């Protein structure tokens, strides 16, 4: 029970430090005298860290083991959140980078931890942690403004550190129960084998494209709805509704998909629902917006859950899962960081939302195409990855303890 409780609370920490910034942005900019571009850079720094620093997780897990790597991530997260909230301009961005680094490490480690601790219930525990990820973001977004109103933005933003420290305390017994290491080395041979595998490239593409379509809508949906005539409050409620729909999808889809031999039907349904949501927002944003948000949320929630589930299912052991997770998530979040900017530039060039949403639909079609390949089981395709991690230069086993 302690293992499950620590795993769940750690998963709750995957997004509050990121999702809690936007509601406080006006307060932060006013206090520190930031321009809108400088304020937006707080989130950009964190998302770029998610994309660029994911490979730190396999490096740490090689030396420390996955359990201790998660603990290190939680402690870095708490430190980063405190630094981000405690000082001026320099500490704001340094703390944001530390928090983003921690989230990158934990993002990559979680699929490997599922494979290591719950190998017979991969679908269920993938659903649990992805649901916690989405719910943590939704809760953080909703409580930051009331907290800031009562105690100031620094206390509100810094409160996330309490959650991270609580998770670290709960996870610490698990981290120190096992000897350091606990997995095979994720060295150069493992990554060479990964990059030679067709499975790696299709999983990487699927992860990146579904991340892009998600972050585009996260960034621009409220603006699109307001331009269509909805009030700011109504636009915010619509974004909250799609988050709730995502939670419903992440709780149920991985459980069913994890028991199936092929995930192709699931990724197809998820992509079609996401496209239907885009079409609804494109053609009639002010007519039945709640329906489009439910459809979009189910599609996007199922897509992220399936991307992470497929990472866990396709690789043969926890170390290989962690390496594949690092490759797929690093590329995915780097691509996701560029999506909202490209979407905004298309809107700026055309003056309306038709062309950006059509471009988003095009990305959804590519997501479907990559998902059709990623969702197919490929027995033995990544076996070379595990083999590459178990033999050193002299042919002997290099199991790190």
Automatic annotation (TrEMBL):
All copies of domain Major facilitator superfamily (MFS) profile, residue ranges: 1-379
Residue intervals passing through the bilayer: 35-57, 69-86, 92-110, 122-145, 151-172, 200-223, 235-255, 267-284, 290-311, 323-347, 353-374
Predominant cellular place of this UniProt entry's protein: membrane
Localisation per UniProt entry: Cell membrane
Keywords: Membrane, Transmembrane, Transmembrane helix
GO CC entries: plasma membrane
KW Membrane (keyword) present: yes
Recorded GO MF terms: transmembrane transporter activity
Protein's membrane topology: Multi-pass membrane protein
Name used for this protein in its record: MFS transporter
Record lineage: Bacteria, Bacillati, Actinomycetota, Actinomycetes, Streptosporangiales
């Amino acid at each position: 029970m302690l293992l499950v409780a620590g795993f769940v609370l750690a998963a709750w920490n995957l997004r509050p430090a990121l999702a809690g910034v936007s509601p406080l942005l006006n307060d932060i900019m006013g206090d520190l005298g930031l321009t809108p571009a400088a304020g937006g850079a707080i989130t950009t720094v964190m998302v770029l860290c998610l994309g660029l620093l994911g490979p730190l997780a396999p490096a740490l897990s090689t030396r420390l083991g996955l359990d201790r790597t998660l603990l290190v991530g939680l402690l870095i997260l708490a430190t980063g959140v405190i630094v981000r909230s405690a000082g001026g301009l320099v500490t704001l961005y340094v703390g944001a980078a530390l928090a983003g680094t921690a989230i990158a490490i934990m993002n990559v480690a979680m699929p490997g931890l599922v494979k290591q601790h719950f190998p017979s219930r991969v679908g269920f525990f993938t659903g649990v942690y992805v649901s916690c990820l989405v719910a943590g973001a939704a809760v953080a977004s909703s409580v930051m403004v009331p907290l800031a109103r009562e105690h100031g933005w620094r206390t509100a933003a810094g409160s996330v550190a309490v959650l991270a420290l609580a998770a670290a305390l709960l996870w610490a017994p698990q981290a120190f129960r096992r000897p350091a290491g606990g997995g095979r080395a994720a060295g150069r041979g493992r990554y060479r084998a990964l990059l030679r595998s067709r499975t790696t490239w299709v999983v990487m593409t699927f992860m990146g494209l579904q991340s892009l379509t998600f972050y585009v809508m996260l960034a621009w949906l409220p603006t699109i709805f307001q331009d269509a005539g909805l009030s700011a409050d109504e636009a915010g409620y619509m974004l909250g509704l799609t988050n709730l729909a995502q939670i419903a999808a992440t709780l149920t889809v991985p459980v069913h998909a994890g028991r199936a031999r092929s995930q192709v039907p699931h990724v197809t349904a998820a992509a079609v629902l996401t496209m239907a949501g885009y079409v609804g927002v494109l053609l009639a944003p002010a007519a039945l917006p709640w329906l489009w948000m439910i459809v979009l949320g189910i599609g996007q929630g199922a897509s992220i859950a399936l991307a992470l589930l497929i990472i866990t299912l396709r690789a043969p052991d926890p170390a290989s899962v962690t390496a594949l997770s690092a490759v797929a998530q690093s590329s995915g979040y780097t691509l996701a960081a560029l999506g909202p900017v490209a979407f905004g530039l298309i809107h700026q060039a055309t003056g309306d939302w038709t062309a950006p949403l059509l471009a988003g639909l095009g990305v959804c079609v590519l997501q479907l195409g990559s998902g059709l390949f990623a969702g197919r089981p490929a027995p033995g395709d990544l076996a070379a990855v595990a083999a590459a991690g178990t033999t050193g230069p002299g042919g002997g086993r290099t199991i790190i303890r």
